[in-house]
Specification:
This protein is an alpha/beta fold. Helix content is about 10%, strand content about 25%. About 45% of the residues are buried.
Length: about 200
């Protein structure tokens, strides 16, 4: 187990998952992103999971099979979002302009914030910067956790409720706090659960 006070490893990359690890920074938003954001806002209020998934795919989201995207989610630039098979996205806020890749069987709980944008505080123009985020297979982003631009959350890692993640998270580690630090380690095993199988009432 990692030391309880060890910061999240800034150089660690997720391993063992199917999510591509190549990160390409984007320098600006696009008209397509603005359009898809506005459309996604309305899609996210519709009843019927199958209908929402169909419409999300029509505006450019890449969504695998057996996924759940709950009503009330906020998706900024959803055309830059990829979701792997069996993953569950709760009533979270995902700002995806820089690109977000979510692996298989990932659970993102209600209230989580995934944000690829930041500003250069030393820029005279307060320049916006966008860096991609990768969340690898079997990871769990718990309630009200925040994952910031440029971060990779490794395979099987857990981001505890309310944590603020500013650096890469080692696979199968458990991180918590602000800024997030390693507080435990998850047992490596053959997981059998599929978050996308969970269908709460009025989904």
């Amino acid at each position: 187990m990692s030391d309880m006070n060890t910061p999240v490893d800034a150089g660690a990359k997720a391993t063992g998952g199917d999510v591509a690890q190549t990160k390409v920074s984007r320098t600006r938003n696009t008209s397509r992103s603005y359009f898809s954001t506005k459309v996604a806002y309305n899609i996210g209020r519709l009843h019927g999971l199958k209908l929402r998934i169909f419409l999300y795919r029509r505006i450019g989201m890449k969504i695998g099979s057996n996924c759940v995207v709950r009503r009330g989610v906020y998706l900024g630039s959803p055309n830059e979002l990829e979701i792997g098979d069996g993953s569950f996205i709760g009533r979270a806020n995902l700002y995806c302009t820089g690109g977000v890749k979510i692996g298989k069987n990932v659970n993102i709980s209600d209230g989580a914030v995934i944000i690829t944008a930041k500003h250069d505080v030393n820029s005279p123009a307060f320049e916006a910067l966008y860096e991609p985020i990768v969340i690898d297979d079997w990871a769990w982003i718990a309630t009200n956790a925040i994952v910031l631009a440029g971060v990779t959350v490794g395979e099987g890692a857990v981001v505890a409720a309310g944590a603020v993640v500013t650096r890469d998270v080692v696979p199968y580690s458990i991180v918590g706090g602000n800024p997030a630090k390693v507080i435990g380690e998850r047992k490596r095993q053959g997981f059998t659960y599929v978050p996308g199988d969970y269908h709460p009432p009025l989904l």
